[in-house]
From TrEMBL:
Keyword Coiled coil: no
Family: Belongs to the glycosyl hydrolase 3 family.
Gene3D superfamilies attached to this UniProt entry: 2.60.120.380, Galactose-binding domain-like (2.60.120.260), Glycoside hydrolase family 3 C-terminal domain (3.40.50.1700), Glycoside hydrolase, family 3, N-terminal domain (3.20.20.300), Immunoglobulins (2.60.40.10)
Protein name from the UniProt record: Exo-alpha-(1->6)-L-arabinopyranosidase
One of the GO BP terms on file: arabinan catabolic process
A Pfam family annotated for this UniProt entry: Fn3-like
Domain CBM6 stretches: 859-976
Membrane-spanning residues: none
Family annotation (PROSITE patterns): CBM6, TAT
InterPro entries: Actin-crosslinking, BXL, CBM6, Cellulose-bd_IV, Fn3-like, Galactose-bd-like_sf, GH, Glyco_hydro_3_C
Amino acid sequence: MSHRRSAMLSASAALALALSLGAGPARAADDYPFRDPSLPLAQRVDDLLNRLTPDEKVAMLHQYAPAIDRLGIKLFKTGTEALHGVAWSTDYTDNGAVVTAKGTVFPQAVGLASTWDTALIKRVGSAVGDEARGHHAENPTVWGLNLWAPVVNLLRDPRWGRNEEGYSEDPTLTGAISTAYGSGLEGDDPDHLKTAPTLKHYLANNNEVTRDTSSSELPPRVKHEYDEAAFKPAIEADAATGVMASYNLVNGRPNTVNPDLDDVVRSWTKRTLFNVTDAGAPNNLVNSEKYYATQAEADAALIKAGLDSFTVDDANGAPTVAAVKEALSKGLLTQADVDDAVRHQLSIRFRLGEFDPDGGPYAKITKDVIDSPAHRKLARETAAKAMVLLKNSGGALPLKPGKKVAVVGPLANVLYTDWYSGSLPYKVTPLDGLKERAASVASSEGVDRIALKDVATGKYISAPASGGDLKESATALGDTEQFDAFDWGQGVLTLRSVANGKYVSRANWATLANTADQPSGWFVQEQFTLEPQSDGTSLLRYAGYETAYDWFGQDKYVKAAADGTLSLTTADQATHYAKEVVSRGVDDAVAKAKAADVAVVVVGSMPFINGREDHDRTDMNLAEGQEALVKAVKAANPNTVVVLENSYPTTINWEQDNVPAILWTTHAGAETGHALADVLYGDVNPAGRLTQTWYRSADELPGILDYDIVKKDRTYLYYQGKPLYPFGYGLSYTSFSYQGLKAVPKGDAYEVSVKVTNTGSRAGDEVVQLYTHQHKSRVKQPVKQLRAFQRVTLAPGQTKTIAFTVKKSDLALWDVTRNKWTVENATHDVLVGSSSANIRQRATINVKGENIPHRDLSQTTRAVDFDDYSGIHLVDETKVRGDAVAGADGGWIAFKDVQLRKPRTVTAGVASTGGGTIEVRLGSPTGATVATIPVAATGGIYSWAPATASVSGANGVKDVYLVFTGDVRIKDLALR
């Protein structure tokens, strides 16, 4: 909730803020050197920095950096959301006048990546950047040019609530798409930025449950080869200007004070980066995370770790200023630390043209670009190219003109936006799009129309036609007593009032009202369940999100007072209702399907309900009622096409086995209906590809908080099973053949080429995917790993030679024995095909690298650089930097292939509050014990001390296991 408030103020509120911070009419300051675009950037930044007072510098650390009248500097706001268009672009009131700001909404981010088309995504990014500039030209105080996009967190777990915001489970694909999108946002000027994109959310942020207190435990290989690898490409390509630190912890340390923000991320580019906190995260360090005792300590650590801007306390910068000043006064920070952070911000502001006399090359972009005809056309093209054809048997698709079509399902005639969408300036629903193409169209939402009658009084819940509080009043049914019940799975319903077409909401925090246009908001107060009781009645339960605070406690059930007013109470005090089905949605949909030549069933998710920020999914199933609808329609009309419109993988096993054709799309914006019709009728040959593995059941997944993809066989990289749909999968209306794969060494790279031919009768796109697999290695290797891809357009009979370059360094692994990237001597398969599971051509290459030597534990070795483990946790060595291992009874870590030369002693750096032991064993956790290290209490988890023991019987090349008992942390060890 604070995330959204922090990122957007009304125009009038923002103006008031600017004035309150001293932003009067700007004085002439054009003669200052920092205003001279001909000077080097660094010189301009230093000139302005040196003109700022210490107080002005501290004030600039907040998200709303105040205007500085004496220098003619305007307020600068970080954080305009722009994942798939400028978010929260809606009509707003400015001094009593309504300003229209609705902009182009492109497909959700996971849909953008499903195009596998970097050139297209750069065009989309450029359009979004233009619209951000257009909004900025209209109101620069509300619409800042520092954009919080794209999200590059890997989609490791498809249950993640924010799956719609990311791109892929694969770092190569994620890196390519984020680089393309970021490049478009930035523009092509070598010196200036159209906008300043910020990558979210660093690092390993792929769960919403306990998202500000859970720790993502990353062994070094997972951290370097997987999670960091998603962030590096866009930074390295100068396609992003910074990162946002995520809420979660990594190895026990909050990412808000992760030193990698400085030590690692900034090493990837020579450009200056401007890093920001997530909303409220500075205060989490003291509150929910309890990592620091005072805000001054927390803010000092945050700045020293490499963050430059505080997103906290909405528009009120006073608490941040007070805490930073306290940190300076206590010596926790230096003025140089503050200057560095401000310098980073100013560098980006200069590149945005803020201090150029003419505003820079992008200042001429006006609001006229918003929702332009060109952007509408691009949105339609992108939505069509993002769609993935999952099944097409018996020539079910494309649809033939002149047929009668039934368009049914709860998403047939609606378009939904998500938490980070803009408002749609117009809507072309699936029904609208198909009406333009079919000979005739019949439609049905396929949802039940119900009424709820109080069994004690005989009165129905009524909703006023004008919108307002619901109340028990009528004893007979009319429109005001009827509600359309939409099933979103796991018992969750939304109730749309027949009286006025609005959704029932707990909008005023006191009663229920039919006032919502769609489910939305942070708590999504339009969610309800009907809980069956043993007497045949039902209780109506409010099921809106309440986060960890559970504000309503047990008061979630609807109760009618004597006068009919409704409120929430406990289950034992709730009113019992008889659910009366006025009309069955399935019956209506079946009737329409029977009368049609083809039935198109549009099912899927509501983005504010089925997984979203702060709420993970707990299963991956299609809503029960929606699946029942699909089954009934298929039984009524064998020519059934399912359109699945949602934001994540779904377990549609029955549909895959029984329905002739299935097409998947994300929530794709205003042009969804046109794009859908383009694909269904074959004007666009589908070529979208899945960016995630679609599993057959959530039972195939480990816990959502387990981040070790290597050990737990996660994602297509390590998954050993047979998925419902594999990574990279997608069908076409034509066919392609592959011939003549070649992999030729050229310097420190391999030139890979393959011929691809369209062997069908219709033009289409093929996504040619290049994977590799290393045969032998010191460590567990991926089943296969994407190295490159191209989306190519081919006419019928046309052949193109597709060329890739694979650098030798691309094949490196993170060697935990020496803490460096290493290319091993090995044979690699080169695999080219149309998905990770459909390899069409194979070759092998013999890569000359090195053989990783036996481990040498006579040198001090970090405990976290183990080769295997069980029953331990990765934790923070100190609050500043470093990782360690926390052992528990029976837990162990292993160092494989160790060259032992009869060591006499073992020394370990340990910390403990209660003491314990570390047994050194050979061969296995139950192997021969060669040493037992006693660990005494050291005074705390950050109080490190050496612990030693004598060693006997350790010789030769062995696997060394450290087995823990008691309360023990270990940071390093040596056997000498």
